[in-house]
């Protein structure tokens, strides 16, 4: 089973916020391309998941959006990380590390030493 089909919505939120923090303002297709390229194609975020996640982040005040002309007629919507989004990102990264630490602790447990 591929991780791209399984990873949680919270991971998408964390990745979007992280990209905005590190890359700066981005538009929708950039997010999808960066996630796919940086994961060597292992993770993909389809539009059906990407835009609802972005709208949720806007609704909560973690990011904002603005429109810019790209070329003569095309308008792109860019997304910008707000201060509250940086705080949210720090929280999500901490939760991610704690979850991984806990999972690894269970996976690496030596069950042969447990009493019956």
How is the topology of this model organized?
Blueprint: H1 9-23, E1 26-27, H2 28-38, H3 47-59, E2 63-70, E3 74-81, H4 83-107
Antiparallel strand pairs: 1-3, 2-3
Helix pairs in contact: 1-3, 1-4
Entry summary:
The protein has 116 residues and is α+β, with helices and mostly antiparallel strands. It is 55% helix and 16% strand.
Question: Any overview of this molecule?
Answer:
This protein is of the alpha+beta class and 116 residues long. Helix content is 55%, strand content 16%. The chain is built from 4 helices and 3 strands; from the N terminus they run αβααββα. It has helices at 9-23, 28-38, 47-59, 83-107, and strands at residues 26-27, 63-70, 74-81. The chain has a 3-stranded antiparallel beta sheet with strand order 1-3-2. A hairpin with a 3-residue loop joins strand 2 (63-70) and strand 3 (74-81). Helix 1 (9-23) packs across helix 3 (47-59).
